[in-house]
Amino acid sequence: MQSRERSSYHRETKAEMKHYTLPSLFLLFLSAALFATPVFASGVHEYVLSNGMKVLVKPDNRAPVVTSQVWYGVGSSHEYGGITGISHALEHMMFKGTARYPSGEFSRIIAEQGGRENAFTSRDFTAYHQTLAADRLEIALKLEADRMRNLTLLKEEFVPEMRVVAEERRLRTDDNPNALLFEHFNATAWLNSPYGIPVIGWMTDIEHYTVADLREWYDRWYHPNNAVLVVVGDVDPDKVHRMARRYFGPIRAGNLPDIKPRTETRQRGERRVVVRAPARVPLVLMGYKVPVLMTAEEDWEPYALLVAAGVLDGGESARFARELVRERELVSSAGASYNAFARLDNLFTLSATPASGTSLEAAEAALTEALERLKEEPVSEAELERVKAQVVAREVYRLDSVQGQAHQLGALETVGLGWRTLEEITDRVRAVTAEQVQAVAQRYFDTDQRTVGWLDPLPIDPDDPPGYFEGHLR
Amino acid sequence: MRQGELKRFVLGFLVVLFSSAGIAQANPGIEHWETENGLKVYFMEAPALPMLDMRVVFRAGSARDGDAAGLARLTNGLLNAGAGDWDADTIAERFESVGAQYGASALRDMAFVSLRSVIEEDWLDTALDTFITVLGEPRFPERDLERARRQTLVALESQAQNPGSVAQRTFFEAVFGDHPYGSPPLGTEESVQAITRDQVRDFHREFYVARNGVLVLVGGVDRATAEAIAERVAAALPEGRPAAELPEVAPIEEGRTIRVAFPSEQAHVLIGQPGMRRGDPDYYALFVGNHMLGGSGFTSRLFDEVRSRRGLAYSVYSQFVPMEADGPFIMGVQTQGAQADEAIQVMRNTLAEFRDNGPARDQLRASQRNITGGFPLRTASNSAMVDNLALMGFYGLPLDYLDAYTGKVEAVDAKAIHEAFQRRLDPERMIIVIVGGEN
């Protein structure tokens, strides 16, 4: 049911907040040649239209379907105070009509063609996607090209849709104690980096957008030279290129704004935040500032960090499940997450739900201890091999989904890494040594560089709604 | 490398469809047989990718809990906690060191275990050996049971802090009462505390048996290999017998509204009553009708009335959940507390209008085109085919279920939908659950 709903911006935020097992990580980003058969060559065809729009096509003829995605290089990390969440709000309005196709027509036409569609916003990008029978691709391209520059943004559509966005925020964040903790944790970790901004935006900003704000944001970022079209499925690349030229080609390139670096100021000591909210289950989050592929001075470091995350939380045989959950029974669950494919420096985040009878202090100490061990001794050969085997296998599994393949291409291209990164990820992960994992642990898992967040549950008493509730949540 | 099997299957299907005349070509691509001890096998060869998906499904969901609410789920979750000579660490290591993915889950009707592996000889063998041992020889170690019990209690607490989960639980209890579907799959604090190791072992012995199971295989192996694998899986299971039929679901006697206080800004609302079962004679009429009412996302009537026109909610939907016995019909919404009454009124009116007047013909055509045009998407990946075959096998749907699907959807007319909604839904006897959003 939920998955049908528009806007899954939470896909990104949730992935980072929740236990990002290596499975999900690598499901997103893998490729290269393992079994040395043609099917594993990336097989991507790249074109650039004269207006600067990039087109990536990957044929996959296992079934007569196609997925088509248009990615824009704008997300919450391009926003600033007062208009936070506006990229996401604009994503909602992209379904509210152009002169040629009034509100609801986009969805109606795609539905009538048997297609599925949706969109999502994250920190680094906004993407719109349709999956259809392969011979209906042209319809999707025609509609996407139309709404790239022709939104009407009518006030009568805008007013109720912003109420929808406010309800979305209440649903996902304000009434969800774990999400509240994540939002506070994140805003505490980043002082000036835009990664401190929640993707959905602060409620006060949502309540005060104007049509003019949205119009300005649309005109600033929605241009062909800030967009990537990704098509994966049972298609002929050159035909897709011709179609793309026909529909997107006539759109003039726009003047794109300079993107300021907004590099995070150096952290000078540990930061801690406590969220007290009606809840039953405590939670601790712990984040360390680390580079990503886009920012790393040493380009092996992000791969070593990925392996570190896999050693801690790459399944039931990883350290957290084996030692903290089963052997010592300190936590009910624990996770490690790290997205190396972001635009800006990111957090390497650990999370834990204490086992019943364990305190947040003890759960936090167990996470810290796990990191200390990574610093003190090299990971074992067996652990490395396991992580690498998972990487290799997932490279195969990911090919089962045309949407998943398109997502990887779009994300890598839009953050600025380029889709060819896909071809080297597996080899780069496989090249990581135990010494390198130890080296990144020593360099980055520094107490002065971390942020710790606690969810401190306040009672949920149905008969006597507590007084804090008035002030805190409303 | 042979490619395009899956494609051929789907194309074969489309050819059948569009060459009219309804030549009943039998399920190109899907093969079905039964092992000697009665395990039903559904297999589709998909050679394009060097991977294999397996799923073994049993009538062993929480509807079989009896007085021990939570038993099915605990049993299912403990299968990989120790089996044969291996403990949980060894089992996890054996799967993950070859990149295999083990999964297990228990719903209300079904419980299943699944495996995804690459087809590299050594790797697949290790994964299969481990999987088959987990399936047939679980040991349910005492200490792991105790830990799983405590984890379940934490999961219950997590549910209790989520207004949506509280609403679901309250809704199922109210709609199904004493029927097994009314029993919470996670259990209750008391029931989970009381479950013994003997109960877990007995549950496994009774329900994880060949005649109560279905094995699904999809991937890059040929029929002979699939048969050999199926024999090994079957050999690990005692023959046993199929689980008894579930009791009939009683209709709601009187509609009522249940309010649960909760400190959330939004009210989480569920409205519904018992709906239909798998294989129900009204299945296609109700499914297509509901697609228009609230099942199709952005283009449904509920979405239009509640979200697009009034901006009352982010998520609003309706669905029939066809199950072994009558599963629920549900309409759901979450909205700021002060708007809850308005949202409920709009949803009830939308349902009443649809039920009273039936669908408009052009909208029906659009919905049918959406469903049938989208059909290739539902068979386009190995994962999707595993889901399809598991559904067919578990609910005993005909082998030509996929072939016949679009034809049956096309055959539904406005009159059939109107009549089915009249007959099957009673707006006067709805359970309405409202959690949170008090002012």
UniProtKB/TrEMBL annotation, chain B:
Gene Ontology molecular-function annotations: metal ion binding
Every Peptidase M16 N-terminal domain range: 54-188
Protein name (record): Peptidase M16
Organism field: Thioalkalivibrio denitrificans
Signal sequence segment: 1-26
Domain (Peptidase M16 C-terminal): residue spans on this chain: 195-369
Gene3D superfamilies: Metalloenzyme, LuxS/M16 peptidase-like
SUPFAM superfamilies for the chain: LuxS/MPP-like metallohydrolase
Keywords for the protein's UniProt record, in alphabetical order: Signal
Pfam families tied to this protein: Peptidase_M16, Peptidase_M16_C
